[in-house]
Design goal:
six-stranded mixed sheet, 17 helices, 22% strand
Length: 483
Amino acid sequence: MNLRHARFQDFWRRLFNRTYPCRIKAVNTATLACIADANLAVPNGPLAIIGGNGVGKSTLALAIAELLDPENVVWGLHKRLTGSLSSAMCEREGNDFQLRVDVAADGSRTRRDDGFAGSSIWIDAAQLAHHCRRAIDDDADFQENLAGISGSVLSNDDLDIVQYVTGRRVTSCEIYEVSDYAGLERFPYFRISCGDLTYGSERMGFGELSLITLYWSLRSAEANSILILEEPETHISPRSQSAIMDYVARICVERSIQLIVTTHSPTVVQNFPPENVWQLIRPGDKTTILSPVSNATVSQLLGSGIRYSGALLVEDLAAKYFLLALLFLLARELRSQFEIVVAGSAGAIDTALNAMPRTGDWLRIIGIYDGDQRNQNRGNPKWPLVYLPSESAPEPLIVDVVNNPAMAAQLANALQRSETDVLTALDGAQGRDGHDWWHEIARSLDVAHEMLWQAFVSVWLGQGTNRNDAEAMIERLRAEAAC
């Protein structure tokens, strides 16, 4: 495979110019509860659905997926469509036909057309990666069961693709597929080697695992189908976002696949012209869909790439989401100035603050430690440091909040879910390890992790002196950012 940028730009040009044997031509949103009534023409070629959190990107994508294959339950997310009558116009081999599916209040589905005669694919690589990781971690006999399965070793050409999308010098990659395991017809397990280091899915970071999972999913994408790609940027660096979208473009061109992608990443949509972008905004109770979308609008809504003035180093993923929520609620201007980087531990932050040489005013690094690190002697690092509010790490801090039944109503209001759903999700997460209980709550309530933590933190801020403590921490961060 020729990985030169010019080669991929050719795939992008062909992606927008070719005729697709099977494609969605129009979508009617008159019956989707969260989206204003509209009859929208779908442009030829790929479509990007962009917008902030909670505006309905995934709901719109799910409505389309429902029309294409109502029997294919997408990770239990169909409850979003309860009470809707979705409809669309599809073209297959030059013939137009209507698609209509009624989702009753009890979740039952009734197709009110002759059915979709083509093939459709839904890929949420981050969700699939999380699902697979949990299944492996929960099964003590997984490796023993895997021993009876032969892995497929990637060819040099395929290995070049894995290296390109991950940005790593991968010397070997084996893919194992377990039949009918953990609710999947084909359960993927990956083992890669980078020189002398060999490791499997259970030891991969979620960014790497999501990338390889997406690559694996695309390998089997059926020709002349419709692909719905859900937020491919999740856990993935901008560099790898660009690379994996290049590979998506290649697959869609070579197999005549119409692409629909939901995203809030400027990198994912950097090759999309305005007429191939739908912007979702929610000025009131209902989301409105705008198209075409100017590059200036995309830049204002999503940003225009990496323009950070520095990095905030945090200990783990929980600290990242906690800090993101604090900045969203109390200091949005700082959120746009700094990239939040998971260092992995307090010791890793110590190392970075002491080892990274000071620069001019073009880069600023600030260590953000959990509150339980407050009494540690950190010496005199080269870069400044700040502690998250309270005397605790974020996870036990929030566990105390959500385990209080009196807080369920507030969480339900913040998440726009019923109190019963919230209580059920909290009960289902009881006993989970401190590092994955909130993953289970997010899965059960079908909300993004960032949105879940915003709800957690908004409730936490309303208790005692928490808001004062948080505002004091933000003011300290502002002062260090201005130095």
